[in-house]
Design goal:
It contains 15 helices and 28 strands. By secondary structure, it is α/β, with parallel strands linked by helices. It has 2 domains: 301 residues, Metallo-dependent phosphatases (Purple Acid Phosphatase, chain A, domain 2); 183 residues, Alpha-Beta Complex (5'-nucleotidase,  domain 2), CATH 3.90.780. The strands form 8 sheets. A 6-stranded mixed sheet has the order 1-18-17-2-5-6. A 6-stranded mixed sheet has the order 10-11-13-14-16-15, covered by helices on one side. It has a 5-stranded mixed sheet with strand order 23-20-26-22-27. Helix 11 packs across helix 15.
């Protein structure tokens, strides 16, 4: 069954006042985003388990489409699939080289391994990346561009891109030197610049997303900035594509995981004014379009390489190791202990909602460890006053369904009407109580530093240094060194009256 979501937006009266029966000139735009590492064709439940998706099918699909057209990607290349994550996007980037993208952009998940990693991944790609409000030392960081202008059948199209400033602000530990300017002001400036250059229509590659408590959304941007014709939104992680219209700006929220492609047809009148917008979400069915043999073969080889790495033994567990979101857990203690021993600091802290699976009894593979801790968090060393540390730790203790998993110290706390209150923290290495006036050093994940517990207490440290060593790498080495892993005893958190 062919599934399409089609929306027609008629803008003639509002935009030109011309005759509705005149011949309109089409410009076709195609859009992918939130691939999340799913670069191969697979059975899709939302398509009644028909095989769909992947770059090999996409390549064949595009060959059925008449040129010229514009093809964009909104970012979030790697995420939930280990096939994309474990290579930091390299396998995905390799396969996109043969896809005729007009331009790509950047979203939050693309930056999880830091700016140098992303730069090295995209620098050799044959199409430009456009992010207008991302700055490094006051300039658009190479190889990014602030805008592009493309002409399609006489229609001059201006393109610029926006990243959510919160992505940068909340990841200071791994994105040192990068800043993100106000997206509304940058959008106004870019719209003005592009109109001065004579463009007929403006497309925005946006990673702002939906409505949020703090910050700018795609809809609010369209409401505040004139002359934005089309916003192609990333950062949605949604199964099905959706659309919206705000202030005569058409917004497309694509589906994820490359099992479909968004198609936007822009219809212009003789004065180069857009009169109509048509949208369809087209499933990339393998049965319908087939696969490009070269891409399919390479994708299969890359997946086989990933599976081989995933099946490698890491350790042997004497029993299943459980995790918990709401309390100290054996697995939380074990992983925090690995970070503590590696860092040789006063202690280590991780958030329990980063630990996604228990570890099984017996042979533990690389894939088991990945399922347990799937994120690309780096370890950051923080230097912090005792008073600030106790406050941040107490705020973390009161986080909902995100219990702090710690090592290197024990905590005594009481439950009061105002919430949980820390009474005392005792360091393991010397048996001394944490003094509010003294200074200490701890190892935390950069996710914790960035507000992983719902507060910014840890980033207010006297100083912090990102080691750019992945937490999962440290955990792997720690477990692999033990013939049979010895599990720590619970008791790092003690409830008192």
């Amino acid at each position: 069954m062919r599934v399409k979501s089609i929306l027609f937006i008629l803008l003639a009266a509002a935009l030109s006042g011309g005759c509705l029966h005149e011949e309109l000139h089409p410009v076709d735009v195609y859009y992918t985003a939130d691939v999340q590492g799913f670069y191969w064709s697979r059975m899709e439940p939302r398509f009644e388990n028909k095989e769909a998706g992947g770059y090999a099918v996409l390549k064949n699909f595009l060959q059925t489409r008449p040129a010229p057209y514009l093809l964009f990607d909104g970012g979030n290349w790697f995420g939930s699939a280990p096939e994309g994550n474990l290579t930091k996007g390299a396998y995905v980037a390799e396969l996109t080289k043969t896809i005729p993208y007009t331009a790509g952009s950047v979203s939050d998940k693309d930056l999880v391994y830091g700016w140098p990693s992303l730069r090295n991944t995209v620098r050799e790609l044959p199409y430009p990346f456009i992010v207008s409000n991302l700055k490094l030392e006051g300039k658009i960081p190479w190889p990014m561009h602030d805008y592009q202008i493309r002409t399609v059948d006489g229609i001059k199209i201006g393109i610029f891109g926006l990243i959510d400033p919160q992505t940068i602000n909340k990841n200071k530990g791994r994105l040192l030197g990068l800043t993100a300017q106000d997206p509304v002001q940058v959008a106004k400036d870019m719209a003005s610049l592009l109109r001065e250059k004579g463009v007929d229509f403006i497309i925005v590659l946006s990673a702002l997303g939906e409505e949020q408590k703090d910050g700018v959304s795609d809809a609010s941007l369209a409401g505040e900035v004139e002359h934005l014709g089309l916003i192609l939104s990333a950062n949605k992680d949604r199964e099905n594509a959706e659309t919206d219209t705000v202030n005569n700006t058409f917004i497309v929220y694509p589906g994820s995981k490359l099992d479909s492609i968004g198609h936007i047809r822009l219809l212009f009148d003789k004065n180069k004014q857009v009169r109509e917008v048509k949208f369809e979400d087209i499933p990339l069915f393998k049965e319908e379009f087939g696969e490009d043999e070269e891409i399919a073969s390479r994708a299969a080889a890359l997946r086989a390489d990933t599976r081989k790495k995933m099946n490698a033994r890491v350790a042997d567990m004497p029993q299943p190791v459980a995790t918990s979101l709401a309390a100290e857990s054996p697995l939380g203690d074990l992983l925090a202990q690995c970070l503590y021993k590696w860092s040789k600091l006063d202690g280590a802290i991780i958030n329990s909602d980063s630990i996604r699976n228990a570890l099984p009894e017996g042979r533990v593979t690389e894939y088991d460890l990945y399922k347990t801790y799937p994120y690309g968090d780096n370890i950051t060393f923080i230097t912090i006053k005792g008073a600030a540390f106790l406050k941040a730790l107490e705020d973390s203790l009161n986080a909902k369904d995100n219990f702090p998993q710690v090592a290197g110290f024990t905590v005594s706390y009481a439950v009061t009407q105002e919430g949980k209150k820390i009474r005392q923290v005792v360091l393991e290495k010397n048996g001394r109580t944490v003094n509010p006036r003294e200074t200490y050093r701890f190892a935390v994940t950069d996710h914790v530093l960035a507000g992983g517990f719902g507060h910014d207490g840890f980033i207010d440290s006297l100083e912090f240094k990102n080691t750019f060593v992945e937490a999962r790498q440290i955990m792997r080495s720690c477990l692999a060194r033990q013939k049979t892993v010895e599990l720590p005893k619970l008791g790092r958190w003690k409830k008192v009256k």
